[in-house]
What we know:
It contains 12 helices and 17 strands. The strands form 4 sheets. It has a 7-stranded parallel β-sheet, with helices on both faces. A 5-stranded parallel β-sheet has the order 2-1-3-4-5, with helices on both faces. Strands 10-13-12 form a 3-stranded antiparallel β-sheet. Keywords: Chemotaxis, Cytoplasm, Hydrolase, Phosphoprotein.
Amino acid sequence: MKKRRIKVLVVDDSAVFRALLTDILESDPQLKVVAGAEDPYEARELIKKLKPDVLTLDVEMPRMDGVQFLRNLMRLHPLPVVMLSTLTQHKADVTLASLEIGAVDYLPKPTKNLQSELESYREVLIEKVKMAAKANLTAHAEIMSGPSYSKIDISAQRFDASLVDVIAIGASTGGTEALKVLLKNMPAKMPPIVITQHIKAVFSKSFADRLNRESALHVEELTNKQSPLIPGRVYVAPGDKHIEVIKKGQRFYCRQNDGDPVLRHKPSVDVMFQSVVKAAGGRAVGILLTGMGRDGADGMKAMHTAGAVTLAQDELTSVVWGMPRVAIEMGAATHVMPLKKITPFLVEMFYHS
């Protein structure tokens, strides 16, 4: 039986860019662009008429901006959405807000009409649209409903991280909101945490700042080439550098690594996890959250083999169950659990009566 093509609605005020996106998407036999809309009002009518599976949505448009349209869409008629934006700091903040509202993923618009760049852009856009069509929108709605547990009372408990030197967390699609949920109710006293989230460089500082506002922990983008790991601090990989953990004498540090992409990713979760194995061996915790692909699975397997505690997010609460699934299938996860159970699990690891 012939497989039904994924129906895509392209929403952008530029006729030239709508035509470009249509050509790119329809070059894949699994995708069909059912229409293009020049503003959200036209898009609203086309959604009712054509029932698309996925939308590509420009961040800024006349009459109603893409974020306000997305907010209305997620409230009234939730659909998988890939946001498209030019790479500026202001639009980075807007794009992160879009992910919070419910967009599955984002993609910067190409900056140059070069054949080499367009070929790379084509590959990534098609991959993201296909992934969005399979995304678990229910998981995002559950994430945004808030924690399913009360903030844990640790006032009469003793903090003990004597067996763990570092917690390493990897995430991709859906991870910006999953990480916010994970850190939101963590106590201020925890082992040092390093994070690799697949994100563009222009977004990573805004992303770290958002996490910092939501958490009792101090969250920062790793802007120095090297920084000591301090308990109660969270270090986020820059969007264009790997992050590694190293040990010098009895002290641990995180550092930037400007090496090649791994599995097309820079920063790479695998690079971070593998460095944790070398630096801390089994005295670590590795966590792999929602995301497309398999980045982090091999590194988590190495952590598991070294004796570290490893956790993978389960399918029901993952927006895209790719990276955790591969790790689980490899036998790399000590525990598989819903997102909202990970924080209580960690608190119980480090706080005792």
